[in-house]
Specification:
two-stranded antiparallel sheet; 2 strands; membrane; transmembrane helix; transmembrane
Amino acid sequence: MVSVRCGLFEFEKILPNCQAWNIVYVDMSSTTTNKSNRATTAKAPILLVLLPSVACVLSLVPTAYLKVISFVVETWPFALPMGVAARFVGACLLFVGHATSCRGKAKLSNVDKLYLAGVGILSVFFGSVFAAALELVESPLPPYTVTGAGASLLGCYSLAAKSIFDERTSAVARLAVAAALAGSSMLVVAGLKAEFRAQASLVASACFSFANCTLLLLLARVRTARLKVFAQFSKVCGSLSLFSANALALGWITPDSVPSVAGVLDKDLVSRIYRAHPAYSATFLALFGTAAYYSAARTSPQLLD
């Protein structure tokens, strides 16, 4: 039998010294003792018992999140639509987050350049929509601008995938990159197909949210520098901001929305959550996020790899 040991797999040619993109990998170099094997086996029944509770908690997350967003929409004090502002801020956070993660690098890699170009194009596009809503310009940039952003990000993650899809990379990291590739593809579709624009944008932002949240948990696990964690957290906030705007555009801020009814929660419980004060939902989300981050930092490699 062999053990799983935590380590850092840096993109040696693609992303040198960029800690925000470091991926946890599986090192198969050391053997385990019979004692550790028995301990791992003993955890299996405990995990099976905890699965229903975990399913309930995970089902609460989208409902609580949408409740908080609905409260923000109801109390939004500006004439500018919230979705317009959320998209612009979200794209800017993605750019600022990655730019911060690249601080100290002597030279940007091709992946860094493609990523910054992609989210930079998104920022400019949503900035034009923002300016048009304020009547500062006559009209925003054409929608196919988003296709350019998606193509740039697709190139970025395609290069990254060449480096991380090998035997050393954890399954969790591979899943995160696969989600980012899917999100980039959906951005291309969003710019080209007007009839699928809203749905494709929502899927893209959901994929990026999953990928960025997963990478944040991996960074917690390897205990990287605080600046790198802050940079990745900015990207998480940016992708969630984009997801919120897209969910609002599709009318998902209701108890009957797809995220609220897709879990294991009773529909009556979902309705009660929406009727409750949003402070409860916000507190739950804060506790859930904190617990997930610190749990990832202390989770054994076998549970994440």
